């Protein structure tokens, strides 16, 4: 089996990408990319191919293994880790057919992966730090050992009392732990001081695999004390701890975190490791405290030791002003001509670039063989190879990339800058830059090239990230010509109709380029970009089929089509476009149907720049409910804006003897007085009304029994001007008089609104629930319920109506789940059948 795995992993003409930014030097260059070229990456030939949905934010840079024997076949595999403590293996080239879902998925918080029952990722509310939101699980980029077929990954979790950091060794073909020793809980050795605070410490930098050893760095959440900078070393085979280093050992709150905005720990071929530390204590007395410094470690004979360090002359100022040197990653440059062939480059929040000799990070100006790690009372750092002015680039919450004797930086609130190297020095006089600039946090460039030709600088504008993601915007992927960065080749906003739009942005995310594709992690998916097949107009290979359902069921219509570029879809009902994103996919699912939908036709217009084709119409047959049963007939809703009155018409004529419910949410006051009427003169009764004490919101349900037939428009008014939202619903089978049975209502703040229990007195009641929130929310219906109306449409919903028919009399409540905690009101009214 072992020899077979080696064959599966290595016998390939394609390149695997198994660590952060392609190599342990963290150069950020993939020079084996032969498919993507500057001439092909344009809006007509390149764009979004598909998306891979995931269960949490993707901060870790995806990894890629070519031609892997997995899941009964051979696949190019993309490995994705999320803040939900999940790891996915996806086919990297397709999301259709057998690849329509993941090849495997592993939850690192289940008992099979070493967690106790009920463990979860850590909530942002635990420390009140929303730098990563809403949960913190896997943040750092894992690393894969191709020889053993093992992925090493760090995950954070909690059982509610204790917080855990675990190092896992996963089998890349199954997602299972590789051995009984895996995982191992990360902590300080016995009698080591200061102690490792598992709540406050956070593993951001990418993991490093070198010489059979895994290295892991730690910083903090939001600079919240107590924390220190930590570097751990673990044996890759046994997962036994081989070494520990604390950057600020004099205090448990010494800070000096190793975080580098997620950049990987760097290493050279001689067993040396390089990191940058953030703001924290600095002192050169024993023991050393090394905040805001660049550190060089040696790992030999199983021992981790500090070999050298450099601290900027203005460390005290950097620390006081939270202007971390360690906000940026360290990149080791290929050998350069001159007296300093082995260089590293780094920059922090000041935007000051440091070029250091890796063999001896610093030297005394008058005595080159003697080191001077810190130049006290200086106005610069003359003991290093080169130092730019402050602000040479925007503040770095990222790291540079290298290609073709140039170094590429994209600082915060700055443009992409390419700085050539000349005789082992950065040539600032010949710096070139892009036209477009990014706001915070800037970007880490990633470069694809075929050797020294066809270089492309890829970057993500993630400036529309927001804590919690509630108002986040999409990530924007850019491509620039690496030989001339003023030339923008493409970006994901250029194509019309959002063709190439990515998911919402995640701070510090870096694109992954492998074998002709670019992978972008977002809050909900990994978006896959690549070259389109040759242009081809859309064709339909499978037409939508007729559907028959019973009232209150949904119906799904599906078309199978192809084209290049990939076609877009617009579903139509009775020849009229259906609004909303749900009607722009290859499949369309109707809302719960009513008898008024019977004999409706559904067709889809499939189009791309090469042409357009319309499917055959498919007919929807809606069967009436069983005699005596309750069933929805039709419903509609409206977000009326700020007003004191609004009207809403039913799409179809009402049926005489049926029953109408009107659900109202009025903002501006929690003591609104509502009035409901309609154009047919039906009489409306109030089932309940509730004012939300935390916010000026009032909501209510009104109903009309034994209604008149014909076209009908419902009008709702209130007493205080505010945002008015309403839903109207027609049902058959409800009692024509005295239909109200019982009600229940409640309010609170959580992710789980619930009306509280009530007990119905008759079997077969209609349970009609109404739930409101203060802020825009994404709702999931309660058990057994169907959401009939969401006002406005998701993800901006603040009012839902949900229903179900209760088989027998007894306890009932209305409930839902919210994606984010909010103030809510929930109510339930039960109505008797005929």
How far is it from the N-terminal to the C-terminal residue, by CA?
Answer: 68 Å
Rg from alpha-carbon coordinates: 31 Å
Which parts are unreliable, with pLDDT below 50 for 5 consecutive residues or more? 1-12
* Percent of residues in beta strands: 35-45%
Give structural attributes:
834 residues; mainly beta; six-stranded mixed beta sheet; six-stranded antiparallel beta sheet; 2 helices; disordered N terminus
Structure notes:
The chain has 834 residues and is mainly beta. Helix content is 2%, strand content 45%. It has two helices and 64 strands. Strands 41, 44, 45, 47, 48 and 49 form a six-stranded mixed beta sheet that branches. Strands 50, 51, 52, 53, 54 and 55 form a six-stranded antiparallel beta sheet that branches. Strands 1-33-34-35-36 form a five-stranded mixed beta sheet, with no helix packed on it. A hairpin with a 4-residue loop joins β18 (266-267) and β19 (272-276). The longest helix is centred in the first third of the chain and has 9 residues, at 2-10. The radius of gyration is 31 Å and the shape is elongated. Mean pLDDT is 94; it is low at 1-12.
